[in-house]
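Tutorial sheet, problem 5. The three components below are modelled jointly, 945 residues in total.
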Amino acid sequence: MTKDGKEMKWTRKDLLSLEELSREEIEMILQTADSFKEVSSREIKKVPALRGKTIANLFFESSTRTRTSFELAAKRLSADIINFSSAGSSTSKGENLRDTARNIEAMQIDTIVMRHSSSGSAEYLARSLKAGVVNAGDGTHEHPTQGLLDLFTIRGRKKKFEGLNVCLVGDILHSRVARSNIWGLKKLGAKVTLCGPPTLIPKEIENLGVEISYDLDSVLPKQDVLNILRIQLERQSHAFFPSIREYAAEYGISNERMKKAKKDVMVMHPGPVNRGVELSGEVADGEQSVILEQVTNGVAVRMAVLFLTTLVERG
Amino acid sequence: MTKDGKEMKWTRKDLLSLEELSREEIEMILQTADSFKEVSSREIKKVPALRGKTIANLFFESSTRTRTSFELAAKRLSADIINFSSAGSSTSKGENLRDTARNIEAMQIDTIVMRHSSSGSAEYLARSLKAGVVNAGDGTHEHPTQGLLDLFTIRGRKKKFEGLNVCLVGDILHSRVARSNIWGLKKLGAKVTLCGPPTLIPKEIENLGVEISYDLDSVLPKQDVLNILRIQLERQSHAFFPSIREYAAEYGISNERMKKAKKDVMVMHPGPVNRGVELSGEVADGEQSVILEQVTNGVAVRMAVLFLTTLVERG
Amino acid sequence: MTKDGKEMKWTRKDLLSLEELSREEIEMILQTADSFKEVSSREIKKVPALRGKTIANLFFESSTRTRTSFELAAKRLSADIINFSSAGSSTSKGENLRDTARNIEAMQIDTIVMRHSSSGSAEYLARSLKAGVVNAGDGTHEHPTQGLLDLFTIRGRKKKFEGLNVCLVGDILHSRVARSNIWGLKKLGAKVTLCGPPTLIPKEIENLGVEISYDLDSVLPKQDVLNILRIQLERQSHAFFPSIREYAAEYGISNERMKKAKKDVMVMHPGPVNRGVELSGEVADGEQSVILEQVTNGVAVRMAVLFLTTLVERG
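Model answer (structure tokens):
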């Protein structure tokens, strides 16, 4: 139900970004996820909602966690799921992507879940297919289901977003998770601060209505939520910061630093955690961490997304 | 029903080749595929026909498309399916094949779908197992389900085979798809022409009752169906033709060349297409192309084959 | 039912070793496997016992056979099963294992089936998770489901274990299969002899109540069961024996050597067999071999283990 009491209807065959969703659409997904979260806590974790539907996991970048989360979501909805491994493909990527996807679609797949290293690839695919496309991460653009599960987890603990202070910490530059969080949090009314080394925060991102800080200790005390981004250690050679040790000293969340934070601050991380770099082991496993709750919620949110997109009336 | 009005009964636990099938058996598979094609177009694309049966995909050569097509076929019949990856197997191939297959069979698998680089391997396996064996491509011998889906697609458009002119274009020498097409088309009454560079057409193949041509432009005008074979670019080093550019000029199907063809000619290709080599992008995506229809029909035909072989009474 | 007529109740969420199981627990698994063996021989090889439960296969060492056996067991119980491939993981193993497993658990997986190269890893995991853990082989420690399927196969032929002479032949030193067999056989009352080259039999293993022999021909005549262990040819460089030919001459089971054995001796092997090394092809395929029966029984035993551990009341 929307605010004015009318029942809302889902109209998208694709989930490509949080940028394109309205506040009402985001809330509809979160409400749908509420009921599916309950399913996963039952003795029999399965509903027949997508029986006879076919979902394809098409991952051009490897990702055990996200792929598995979608696979479980599909199975708990009783859909059939097919995993495509695209390693070792020798043809040119652009052509290959479209041809591969059209072949998959021709097998009467209902929804394709795709991860790809090129920003915009999910949208490109969605335009050329009748099948639904769920973006499971496209380059540095967006990772909308991660954004949605972060919203779902915050909402579960803090109940409302209005007036909530959320700080995204770390590598904003390369992070599709950050971008989906920013769009989602802003639409739901939270105040968003980005904090990290100047080299890892693009200047023009201020235009999205977020605050920027390079000094974690100064912004930390007022935050209700810390969403700590993963440092991609393999990108270290680009020298975005002097050393891992210095990064950890300036932006790593340690027990010591946590003393400056609110008692009820939520610590989030999309995983996998580099313990001792962006987060100490104690904080990752501590009482304020909701990292594993995020994983649990990820299945529920993905069930909601697959449910809504797969059952939409197709044009 | 056969022509004399008696109901036919399927009697084979294996599908090894189109060479060994009678015209009636081929027609029975195509008729069974008719009803399964309808299943894949339903809202709920699933029937309980093989519930509690187990199918194993045993692919010694990688093939995402064919493997996926069989996997979907099995799932839409409600069978359980197990994928074996056989990469990294260190034991000698001959021994390994039999031992691997007997181990799989011992887990009470009903039907093994196998792709293998050795011609005759599927037949070898079928003789030593009680489980059914479906040949998903054995060396340069046959790829019977591809042949059947090609027949099914032609039949869907042209209704009958008698008097139909079908031309297979390209690398006949290495093509198991060509061999299965020849057997199937001849049994159903079509006239078959093989066209390609002399180095890629084995002379003795004339004995199968086909015509041979090295000049595509001269045979093109009378064809009702063009089945364009894939050029295996990785075999280029063997120098079966001077260059890809020359191959494309002589045997590639371009928009220009299509002007010489019948208005209602069908353009087929087993995929994946090397755009600009054996087929231009415009033709591949054009109105006469049935390439994606072939992919759709592949699932229906494989459902029919798995259904018939798995439910046959075993000796 | 236990001997004193009371109904026994399964109380373990994990299956980590045969060492920790009581005789009654082992018998309970074997009795449960009896009924599941019947399921796999039905036309419809499936029961709804674990519908809506989720099993995860987490294999840090590759193993097509064991992984497939567990996958089939889960599917025939109607559970959902997820396969994790852990190849290419770059983080330090110790941390990674716990974090990976806790992430999997957070997706509300009921039971994790794990193979890992470190002895004790399954127990380590079981202690930190609410999810059940089934050890599918941990280093050189134990491979309890292999031990159980060996017991199940012996019991199927020999009916009782009291007074039965069982000889494990070959590489005892590196064999987790040997260790699980020793614990299980001793608990059920069999007499166990270990036979192999002195370099491959650890001295202190006598403390488990087994006999040791380095001379196969002298102990062979009195054995009721020969369980032939696999020689890991890749470990040959360590020079535990002079050459494969000499190993085969001393400890390989040939037709010639079989003449010295009892008429009704059972020949077992966990597979895959190195034909001509630890076992001749004739013996492997001969009348006394129960190797494929072991494979069949493996599915039934794993169904029993997944059934009992997954449905136990969790603390």
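Marking note: Chain B touches chain C at residues 51-54, 80, 82, 84-86, 88, 91, 95, 99, 102-108 (CB under 8 Å). Full credit if you identified this.
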